Amino acid sequence: MKTVNCSTVLDLLPEFARDELDAVDAASVREHLAGCDDCRAELEVVRMLAEPVAVPAGLEDRLVRAVRSRPVTRWGGMRYYAVAATFVITVIAASVVLRRIGHSPPEPVGDELAAFPTLAWPEVGDPLLHGSPGLQALSEGELLKLLQELES
Amino acid sequence: MIKSDLHLDRDGEVDEIRTVDRARSGDRDAQEVLVRRYGADVYAVALRILGDRDQAADAAQDAMINALNGLGRFRGEASFRTWILRIAANSAKSVGRRGWRKREVALTTADNVVAATQDPESRALLRDEAARAGRLLERLPPKQRMAVHLRINQGLSFAEAGEVMDCTEGAARVNYHLGIKRLRELLT
User: Within this chain, do residues B119 and B143 fall inside the same structural domain, yes or no?
Assistant: First the structure.
């Protein structure tokens, strides 16, 4: 059995509540919960929310009827391939016509671009994805600020 | 770490790919299998976004038709379930934008909770608590509500939730924890 912290446990609670963790992880989470009031309280909330939403009677049949009676598009799944093929053919045809009338296509700009040094991205560790520091340790204000940064 | 996908084991994934391929080639029976397999999940996502059962049913119908008409765009990079739930979220937003009247409906009311497995007394208690939690969930901002629903009810990972919500894994994670934090405050 391995020791897990609150951050890891809180991330795993939905799977733990659905009994989807393997035996080792489930045991680790269970051991942590035995000594952590805060994580136990959150598990209660997760269990409350895990109650399934009831589907109205007849919805499934309504959906089946709707998809069966929908107008079938003529091209169906091939539509996007057809658009792509048309684009490629147009480009090839334009290239041939330009060559025949004496206009060569513009020179590639690859050499010019190669003259510029490549800028490396700064390496920034993402603590969110590594579970440290734990999100549950942050205040609501700090979480909102973090979210704004992520979404900006 | 996690035993298996919520719905599919390895054999299930193979079956899923075959079913999607058949549906894509126009097999109506395969299409019906997909509708029956994902109809409830698609409806639940729409309901969480719209808060109205009638609108959610309309959005679910739009989503299913859009998904089946657009099967050619499914590349298998994400799971089919994640892909169709994203279509459900977009369809629900589209229905919501039509400006239909939004009714205040508790999503997890006492009469729509599926029976749990505990004894009747515990079940009744859990049902009451679930009803309250469901009503409080409605008070969260849409992104937090969605992240909580996708993680807890749909069983998606943070990365998959991010795909459905059209945001990063980190943003989905923060929205989830913000939502849970807020719900805990509201429940106490």
Answer: no
Gap from B99 CA to chain A (nearest CA, Å): 23
- What's the number of CA atoms in the CB half-sphere (13 Å) around residue B110? 5
Q: Please give the tally of structural domains in chain B.
A: 3
Angle at A98 between CA A96 and CA A103, to 5 degrees: 140
Range of the domain at B128: 106-134
Q: How far is A106 from chain B (nearest CA, A)?
A: 33
> Same structural domain for residues B92 and B19?
yes
Residue in the block written with tokens 């279509």: B87
The minimal CB distance from B152 to the residues A14, A41, A126 is found for A14
pLDDT tens figures, A95-151: 888 887 765 555 555 555 555 555 555 444 454 545 455 777 778 888 888 888 887
Same domain? For B146 and B157 the reply is yes
pLDDT of residue B115: 41
Both B97 and B4 in one domain: the answer is yes
pTM as predicted: 0.67
Is the sign of the CA dihedral A34, A39, A45, A46 positive or negative?
A: negative
Whether the bond between A71 and the residue before it is cis, its omega within 30 degrees of 0, is: no
ipTM beyond cut 0.85: no
